[in-house]
Every structure is written in structure tokens, then in C-alpha cells.
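A common beginner's mistake is to predict each chain separately and then try to dock the pieces by hand. The better habit, illustrated here, is to supply every component at once so that their relative placement is modeled jointly.
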Amino acid sequence: MIKGAARGNENPGKESLSINELIKENPDIVAIIEELGIPRKGCEAQSLSFLCEEAGVDPDDIFTRLENKNKTTGRTEQEINYLTIEPGTNKTGKKEFKENIEICKGEVIALVGPTGAGKSLMLSDIEGMAAGDSPSSRIIKINGKNYDEFYQGKNIKSPIALISQSMNYLIDLKVNEFLDIHMECCEIAEKHLQKKVVDEACHLCGESFSLDTRMVSLSGGQARALMISDSLNITRAPVILVDEIENAGIRKDKAVELLVNSSSISIIATHDPFIALLANRRIILQNGGISSVIERSESEKETVKILKKINEYSENLKDKLRFGKILDINFEL
Amino acid sequence: MKLIIVGGPASSGKTSVIIHALNNPIIDKSKVLVAKLDCLVANDSEVYKKNKIASITGLSTYICPDHYLSTNIERISKYGIKKRVDYLIIESAGLCNRCSPYLTDTLGVTILDVLSGIQSPNKIGPMLKSADIVVLTHCDMISQAEREVFRKRISVLNCSAKILEVNGLTGKNSYRLSGEFALAKEFDASVPQHLKYSMPGAVCSFCLGEKRVGETFASGNVKLMELPGIKDGVWKK
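With all components supplied together, the output reads:
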């Protein structure tokens, strides 16, 4: 113990614990013990310092490696319960909105407003967890913590995923090979998830693709569908930002349905009334700032039903068009 | 004076990121000097001038740009001290994958373009491993998943480096880099400076201008490639 304290070790006394106790505390230690060639089987009750001496290993080395491992795992340790937008200023420099906007776990929010009104800036602020230093001077907090408090200088994985129109897959691999790499990076071992990712993605787009398809040959819509399904199943991002889903060439209603049913916070920039009304609240942006926040009203719930019919009808027409049918109109509300 | 060394492969956005980082309120009231080292041509002084940033340029021409940098770091830092600047940024030429220009006691920033593909962190060696901060550019162009893989691969190679995503065009997130600049240690000219990683060796006939290729004309520090079928320099029959 004295040795640990004298060296400024952050784990004083830990080397006197038994292997079993240490594993209970942090299971990651198993890999490190095996890496260093320290015998484990049959020695579970022995203290670490004893075993280290036997194997000629410095116990500090184990704890340093463990610390590094913790730093690189990139897991977001805590659950994300709510996200706060503290208003900044609009293009004219005036305060954009009076109150903070709090968005809870599982909630879907729509961002609406004319082009150039600041939807993309809002998404960019949220994605980068702006701390009053972006052009809008907004402050974004997660669980009440700002960027610095949340990350504390560590390289933990961002809890926020962004799917935008400018994003592309660059990698030249088959879908399953790429998912392998991504799952390894997210420390997910469940291979069967790959099929789920592709199935969900195919559900969103017209022509289906398989795990054997090459990433570069995916169409724009297929790629966007894969991004959505991948964010939900593999990244498992607690916050998902989507920029204009309706332009992606995918079944927007199904895509939003997936987001609505997930436990993530979803924020969708859109021009589509149907998508905007699937969200329970919508933020109206004008002149670079938030002008109001509207909660979906009871009467709007009726509107959704009609919009759903219109959307189904228009999807139906699109399918007819795609498959070379004649587009005859017989529509009744 | 704070000395900051910025490196990275060619065209990864070093100049744009530096300009955005220096233009943030936390720094832009200080006296700043950028020393740009390049190989053949450097038009960046005009870009810096446009952004009202003082700069000096050094061209390595016939010498390896990284060796040139290591030789001239002392001169540049003395110049910076003489000019009483608060921030001296040394922007290296686009580095090859074997080099790392960083010194033990100064802030080292590597700029990487994520468009170079998710294999690139593994191909870039010392420059990435010895950096204190890794700045990623063009992050808005690739998928979230690839970005995650890219970041993960960097943190496996260098777990202590901070990874920042900065947009070189819009300057998004550049203030986080400015903050890191402001926190950098003061440069102490009285302490001898060391490279964090040794430079690749050369000193061979080609360094001196030999143009004829082949083993016959290579002399000095020469490394031969091992191929199946050659043993101790003799081709098997």
C-alpha cells in the first residue's frame, strides 16, 4: 500500500486484492492478465501482488493498461435522459427564444422553417454540443451537462449521431464486412444483428440489398436507409439527428416510425407536414433563430390521419410510376 | 511564447484549420506568427495575409522537409521570441507517413482528413502516435459509422490524444482547438528540445542527386527488399 501511495498511484492497495475481487470490480482486467501471461486458473484467491511477483510483472503496469483500456473503449457510460437547448441569438443578434427547450428520452422533435432559416445550424449546434461559441451562441447540454462537463477531456464516443444529405459511404467493402468493422469498434458481438440492420434498411427502401452487396454500389436511398438502421442498431446512439429525410428517396413514413419507436431522442429537420406531425413537438426556425415551439394539438392528430392517407396514396402512385404502370387518379379523402 | 507544431498529410486542411483556430476571440487579440515550411512552393503566406495573420515561409527545396524543419526549429523559435509573439505556430509541409515533427515539450497537433479512408490511421505512424491533439477534417462528408470507426482506430493507436472534429471551411468547432492552443505550455528556450520520434534515415547516393536507379548505383544507407526467391542477395534457380 505504501508503495502505491508513494508513487502517487491512483489504485493504492489494489494489488493486495485477489484476482477474483479485481475481476468483480472490473471484468476488463481478465484480458490484461492473460496478455501479460499471469496465471489465473487455480490462483483466483491469491493476491495480485503475489502473482505479479511470480510472473515478474509490475502491478502498476496492469492498472495503467486498465486505465488506457477504459479510455479507449469509447462507451458512453451514462444513460442519456434529456437534452437541453439553451437559446442563443438569431441573425439580427436578438435573443431568439425565452425559455430553455428540454427534450426527453424517446421524444421526437421536428425542426421546421424556410430554407436558410437555420435548421442545419441547429442540427450542427446539437451535434457539436455547442457551448455558446457557435454563430448562434446556443448552449446544448446533455443530462444538464455542457460539452466540457460531459466529456471531461476523455475520448468517449459521442452520444449523438447525425444523418445528413451530404454524407456518403466511402469504404469499398461488402456490407457485412463493413458492419463487422463497425460492430468491432462499438464492441458488439451479436452477429445476428447484421441481418436485422439490413432487413430494417431494406424495409425503408424500394429495391432490397443483401449483406453481400458492396457498399459503393448502394444507391443514395439504400445508403441513407442503412445509415438510419445502423445508427439505431449498432451505434445505438441515444440522440439521432436527421436532416430532411423526405429527400432521401426512402419510405419516410417507415423511417420516422422506426425513430418514433426507438428509445432515442430524434430530431428531424423537415419540410414535410406529415413527418412534422409525427413528432409531438416542433421547433419553428426563422431568421436564424427559434421563433416558437408548437406542441401537436388534438385537431392535428386528426390531420395526421388524413396526411397518412395522402402519403399512402402518393407512395402508391410512386410505386406505380417506378414499376411502369399507368397513373390514374381516383382519390377521395 | 507558446510554440505549437502542426503537421499532417498534404492537403488535409492544415492552413484552413490554423486560420480558423487563430481567429477565435480567445486568441485573436494576441500577437501571432505562423511559420510555414514547405517543399517547393508555398502560397499560404497570401492566404494568411488575407486573414491578417503574420507569417514567414521556409522552403526546403532539395532537402527532406522534415529534416529541414528539425534543423530550423531553433532559428524559428528564436525569431518568434525576438518578435515577442504570444503564439508561434509552425506549420509543417505535408508529411510522409514515417515522420513526426513534434517536440517533447510543445503541443503537437496532427490534422487528418477523414476522406482519406478508415485505413489511413493505421498507415500513418509516428505522426499520429506522438500527437497531443488529432484534428479531423471533412467529417460532414462521411457516414456516422465510418467516422466512429476512424475515431476508434485513432484512439487505439494513441489513447491520450484529444480528438477534435473541425470544419476547415466553416470553422465549426475550431474554438475547441483555440482553447487547446491557449492552454499550451510556455516555450522555454533554455531547455534543449528533443524530437518525440526519430526521423527516418537516409544518407545515400540518391540524397546527393543520383538519378540512375538500381542496386548498382545505391550506396550508403541502403535497404534491400526481401522477396521470395532471393536469399542473401542471390537469386535461386
